[in-house]
Amino acid sequence: MSKNILKPEQIAKLKKLKNAKLQALVGAFLILKNPARWIKGSYATDKKGNGRTGVHSEALNAKCFCTVGALRRADFELYGDNADSSNGAESILDKAVAKFTKGGQDEVINFNDAEGTKHKDVLTLLGDVIRRESRGRIEASAF
Question: Residue 126: which of 5, 50, 24 has the closest Cα?
Answer without folding.
Answer: 24
